[in-house]
Design a protein that fits this description.
Elements lengths: L1 E10 L3 E8 L2 E8 L2 E15 L3 E16 L23 E12 L4 E12 L2 E2 L9 E2 L2 E12 L3 E8 L9 E5 L2 E5 L7 E8 L2
Antiparallel strand pairs: 1-4, 2-3, 4-5, 5-6, 6-7, 7-10, 8-9, 10-11, 11-14, 12-13
């Protein structure tokens, strides 16, 4: 199965947090950023290879940028960001997943899975500051388990096998940068039990 789509999105009165100072104190305020646009292509493919193995892959290219920024009145921050990347918008994203399911007994199956998610660098701030850029990164996960005909599934897993650190948000506050990280920011192991009644 193969799918592909192209898209164009243009927005006016786009609202976004903007880092500024007021009475010599750092503030973050919601501003009307003006006009922004996104253009791109996304595609995905699913393939069943034999009785046990299936593969899925997807990729997205998106050119998201600030077309016309409306500088807030009285700001002391730089507003020359027209044509620069829209926050939280990497140009490329891709993921690949492989799943294997084969019988161990007449009522129990072996289930194996692994996936890789990758994206290019992204600017997280409308102010376009150098220290709010998340570099490109990839996260690799894997799992192994059993599934029974009765609906029981037991799985052990490892997330972020290569222990790749990354942030889901970065923003300036005062002289520093606040960094938000997900649970998968560090490698960890776990166990799942699912009973489908």
């Amino acid at each position: 199965i193969f799918n592909i789509a192209a898209f164009i999105q243009e927005l006016e009165n786009y609202q976004v947090p903007f880092f500024d100072t007021f009475n010599n104190s750092p503030v973050t305020r919601l501003v009307n950023a003006g006009e922004v646009s996104t253009r791109g292509v996304e595609t995905d493919v699913t393939a069943r290879l034999g009785d046990y193995l299936s593969l899925t892959a997807a990729a997205t290219y998106a050119d998201a940028k600030i077309d016309r920024f409306i500088c807030p009145a009285g700001t002391t921050a730089a507003c020359n960001v027209d044509g620069l990347p829209l926050p939280f918008a990497p140009k490329w994203r891709a993921n690949l997943r492989a799943d294997w399911r084969s019988p161990l007994t007449s009522s129990i199956d072996l289930v194996l899975g692994t996936d890789v998610n990758w994206r290019t660098s992204a600017q997280y701030s409308i102010n376009q500051t150098p220290d709010t850029i998340q570099p490109k990164y990839g996260v690799w996960n894997a799992s192994a388990g059993i599934a029974t005909d009765g609906g029981l599934r037991l799985t052990v897993f490892v997330r972020n096998i290569t222990d790749k650190q990354y942030a889901t948000s970065l923003f300036r506050f005062g002289q520093g940068v606040v960094r938000f990280v997900p649970r998968d920011d560090r490698r960890y192991f776990g166990f799942n039990m699912l009973l489908d009644l």
